[in-house]
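Box S2. Input/output pair 1.
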Amino acid sequence: QNSNLFNNGIDILYSLPFAFQHFDIVTHSFEDSISTVNTNNLFKKSYENVKQLTIDIPCENLNETIISKNIIDLNLKFAGMSGKWIFSFTRIYQLTLGNQINISPEEFTRLLKYSPYLKSLVASYYTLQLVTNQWNDKIICELLSRKIRSLKISSDNCLDEYMKVHELLPITRVFHKGCYHLNVSVYSRNIVAGLILRSMGHLRSLKVRLKEHTNDMKITKEWLIKQNTKFEKLDCFITIDGNEYSFWFGRLR
């Protein structure tokens, strides 16, 4: 499904109450949808099963029947953020920001403040730069540091997804106190040993993909100890799948 469905004259049909946990808004026709369900029941129960909502198009207005307290996973992919409905999702646990989203630091601050249960964030480095005003907005950085326990840096189709040291520095600065789970792509294993493991002292899990990866450049416990003898006390289990490493920590510090 994509946003061309409506323009191509294709209708999307589904039964109500909606039976699935994931609902994807891909056309503007949702605002003008037709239902044979009694209006009272439609407003109360039509989308109560939906836990995850993905919005693939710019929406200035959103049909209020979908704004449910049951939605805990909100995925925003659209380019504009003019609709005020976004602040109605007060129980979201995970927020995903697409690469094309355009949201001001002021709007993002409000979104964070209206989301007391938010713990998980998925966004590209470019998007994080945008919403934090190049990491200069102290209020947003403090809110992210205090709220986010799981962070995934998603790939940006326009840029190299593998992060360099100067890009990771603001991330470790903002998230080092409260982030327990980190998912990121970096250039080399030296960044893992020299920056991530040294600065992210509260991690419980780490998933990292390496651009520079050969049989002679793998991350092992023995290699980590050679980089820093403090890693002798590192309580972790490492699995390898190609260039992707998964770490599970007992303790870092």
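Box S3. Input/output pair 2.
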Amino acid sequence: MKRAGVQIVFRSTELGTMKRQEDLPTFHLHVHAIVQMTRKLPKAEWSYLLQRVRGWWRHHFKDSQEVHQAREVCKYVVKPPEIEALSGEELKALYEQTFRLHLVQCLGALKDQRKTFEENDTMPRKESERWVVVKNWNAGRGKPSTSGKPSRNSIVCTLAPAAYLTNIKEPAAIILNYSDKSMIQQDKLARARDAALLGHY
């Protein structure tokens, strides 16, 4: 592939249609990959490259088409209906088999590019018909703070009225570090409750 100027820069693993064999679930495991090419290969050279890759990998490998939307490449790892068809034990086994695996991964030049963006707090943005690099104002917002004590009773979000804990539909709030001994946000909770009843916050 290097000799042909072709490099895989992204791969997305997908657990395709689930079928049962001898009552055990099996998935159509396959990967979507993006390749970066330094030049356009003649048809004969491209066919030869695919043949060599198939021989080395010993798995089916085919070309698709030019990618126009990034979402075409990585839509999902597994469809929800396939997961719902598994029993609890089967779902646990699938989780353990895929735990800590890089199911979606940038490789090569794309991996290096993402690292550069992250280190410089920048990001790509499309303006008109071209891409430009701009400052990423959200960079670092997710980094945890190590100073001070964690705040108590911080409202993370409110939920629309539903039967969450009982048969009665009522609004709910998700509270970080809840403590009924130091409920200092009674007014905020009241506003959150009223807003949830109205459907917004």
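Caption for Box S3: The chain has a mean pLDDT of 82. Residues 43-57 form the longest helix (15 residues).
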